[in-house]
Amino acid sequence: MQRSKAHLPIKLVGDLMFTVRRCLSLLAGALVASTLVASPPMALAEDGLDEARAKLSKRFPELDVENLKPTPIDGLYEARWGGRVIYVSRTGDHLIQGDLFEIASSRNLTEEARIGARAEAVAKVSEASMIVFGPKNADYTITVFTDIDCGYCRKLHREIDLYNSAGIAVRYLFFPRSGPETESWFKANNVWCADDQNAAMTRAKAGGVVSSPDCGVTPVQTHYRLGEQLGIRGTPAILTEGGQLIPGYVPAAELLTTLQEEAKNSG
Question: CA 259, CA 167: separation in Å to the nearest integer?
């Protein structure tokens, strides 16, 4: 399918995971939990929350310890950093990076948590810092991490009228895959500083040159860091309102079906 053809950025890992790798020896891979095995009631698991929060806040101040949640495994807690989900022990001495599955239902509990984390993180970004194509009363809204020089990002933008006609508003966040202080990064800054940002985005994605005066601080760095926190690994990266991450280019008709199904399931 077309969506698998996302382009990889050079820098993949955010500040937290860099810190974690220096401090702990991570156990990577899938962590499997079964409801067929007896586990303690959630109320008992919550007994260690305050202890875990206190220890983890000292070791990893970047973690959102207030949203620390017990898992079905006694002594293991779910922690978030942006859109990333990791697991930590009550003592804060052990950390697991991987997916937690419930065997009986085949549910990926970690991905369910990621979906909520992504939706919350994007909801905190002001739309005023985005470049939006589409009516305000659109039926659906997607948020797209985009790179001006990405081929499939350009393909998506060439079809922007098809998305809008399908009732889908497209909100762009900048994610230059080459990283800071590169040509793609400078192009993003120039698009943001243009008098007509929408026209500048369209011109840049068509291969045109956009020259703009320096307008001070732009949202490019903020968007880029958010993408890293959410684990974005290529562009375009489409986020639905419900927090679902769809990597790569998706035709408007196919995307509309996905959004309709999401809305139906959430209702």
Answer: 11
